[in-house]
Amino acid sequence: MSIPDVSSYTARLEAFQKSDEERNALFKDLVDQYKQLKERYDEKQGDYDNELASRRMWQQRASASEQALTVQKQVSSSHNFVVVLVDGDGAIFQDYLLSMGKEGGAEAAHQLYTTIKEEVKAKYPDAISDWSIVVQVVLNLQGLAMKLASCGIISSPTELVSFGRAFGLAQPLFSFVDVGVGKERADHKIRETLRLYLPIAQCKHIFFAPCHDNGYLPVFESYRRDPRLTLIETRPAEWGFRELGIEIKSFPKIFRTVDLPSGGRMPPPGLPASPAPPVRAPTIPHNTVPIMKPASPAPSTESNPPTTTSTNGSTTTSSSWATVGKTGVNSKTINIAPKKPPPTRKFVLLNAYDERLDTWLPDTDKSAELRYAKRMASTGKCCNDFYLSGKCEKGEYCDYKHTEKLTPAEVLVLKHKARSRSCPQRAYCRDVDCHFGHVCKFGKDFCNAENCWFASSHNTDTEPAKRYFEDGSEEWLQSYLDKFGKA
Predict the structure, then answer these.
(1) Which end of the chain is more exposed for a tag (fewer CB within 10 A), N or C?
(2) HSE of 342 in the Cβ direction (CA atoms, 13 Å)?
């Protein structure tokens, strides 16, 4: 028996080992690839799950948004309204309406409602069947009533109250709002109301009157060419409003197209009579406000000389101390010393519209101006409160001079300098010790300043009508009442 060759087995064994290694490598490669594929699968599965969850979430949100949009459309389509804002101090109703009082207020409301409804129907022909019309007239009721009465348009200021009440009652969404004295009050209320309504989707259109006051221009700047806005022209519109590209309409049957007369034809009825007529100041230059001096007190009856009865029954009058002594111990003691006049009450002047005016100041002396300027250049500025009121709350901590001795002429120069500064409160100021200016002393027609600090007061009525005292009481000037024959 022959023995096989060992080398052949070795070669075959090596071949098997190599085959096993290749098989193991193949298995290892398959396992590695499977792991990678499994990882990619798990990643894709995670992405899929996320996308599925996200899609379902967005589907739910889309469905909810569609429902909310549907509800919103239903709400917005069923609660739409139109707003009409009227500055009643500038857009004034026609005379024939105002003169009718209560009936005129109802008629004005009816005409305005009908006119606005026709305007809106022309702009939105298919969508105004259930739209509401909101109207707000904002004004200084007392001031306008006084002016209308003085012009003879209404017979009594109370007629405007009746007019406004009837105007508000004629339609459920009509309001006649009295904001009191001061143009800024009406302006502020109207501006804020505009800002409230403009962003509201249900507010489909806004009518605004008037468009001759440039103070409202900044409000409309961001709404240029907005089709939801319409300006109502009473007096001719300022160019700034025409530049906005907003539609301008006029309702001449409802609102006046010209200013009220500057002079009155009749007195404002119901004014309280002054107890004593004031002493009139001397004639002063045009557009200046006179100083109204308080009336002299009536003579006292207590200073009359005593009377005595003679033996023959006749009555004699004596002014001697001897006669007084002879009247006996039971006689009343009489003080013949001059009676002290009552202390002068501080006051400020107001016009018929409760706007503060400035008292007249005499012209300054040129030499006093030069002396004052030289003094201020060398020592510094003088304290207004100390020199003009006699007191300064800051005392030694004040930044201005208290130690300089000023002549009366120099004090007058200081008054003029203080008056040239504009009081922050303007027409609202009621401080009897305020030394700042409240109106332009030249007026609109005579002021040549390019940027007058008192430009807003150029149209202020500078005729004094009453005194406002520091205790809050008021007194109509007899000189103002005399003009209407109520002296």
Answers:
(1) N
(2) 9
pLDDT at 299 over 70: no
Long-range residue pairs from 479-486, CB within 8 A, at least 24 positions apart, any chain: 479/277, 479/278, 479/280, 479/292, 480/352, 481/267, 481/271, 481/273, 481/274, 482/277, 483/264, 483/267, 484/150, 484/264, 484/266, 484/267, 484/268, 485/267, 486/267, 486/271, 486/273
CA distance 105 to 170: 8
pLDDT at 271 over 70: no
Compute φ and ψ for 230, nearest 5 degrees: -140, 130
Q: Which two tokens stand for residue 157?
A: 């200021």
Three-point CA angle 299, 304, 305, nearest 5°: 160
228 found inside a domain: yes
- pLDDT value at position 310? 39
**128 and 241 housed in the same domain:** yes
370 three-state secondary structure:
helix
| CA atoms in the 13 A half-sphere facing the CB of 153 | 24
Give pLDDT, residue 31: 92
Instruction: Tell me if 226 is assigned to some domain.
Output: yes
> Would you say residue 357 lies in a domain?
yes
387 DSSP assignment:
I
Residues 351 and 229 in one domain: no
What's the total number of domains in the chain? 2
- Mean pLDDT, range 143-149, rounded to an integer: 89
292 closest CA partner among 464, 451, 135: 464
CB 208 within 8 A of CB 232: yes
Q: What pLDDT does residue 99 have?
A: 93
Residues 351 and 459 in one domain: yes
Look at residues 250, 283, 304 and tell me which one is the last residue of a structural domain: 250
Is 440:458 a contact under the CB 8 Å cutoff?
yes
User: 0.70 cut: is pTM over it?
Assistant: no
Measured between alpha carbons, how far is 236 from 254 in angstroms, rounded to an integer?
15
- DSSP track, 401-449: B-S----HHHHHHHHHHHHTSBPTTGGG---TT--SB-S-SS-TTT---
Residue-wise pLDDT for 190-243, tens only, equals 888 988 998 888 899 999 998 877 778 888 888 888 899 999 999 888 888 888
Report DSSP state, residue 382.
B
Give 171's contacts (C-beta < 8 A, 6+ positions apart). Answer: 109, 113, 133, 135
Say yes or no: 358 and 231 in one domain. no
The residue among 250, 283, 309 that closes a domain is: 250
Tokens of 14: 């090596």
Instruction: Of 326, 331, 335, give the one whose Cα is nearest residue 304.
Output: 335
pLDDT for 339: 64
Q: What's 49's DSSP letter?
A: H
Residues 245 and 357 in one domain: no
Whether 434 maps to a domain, the answer reads yes
Q: Which domain holds residue 447?
A: 347-482
Q: Which residues, listed in sequence order, are joined to residue 85 by a DSSP beta bridge?
A: 136, 208
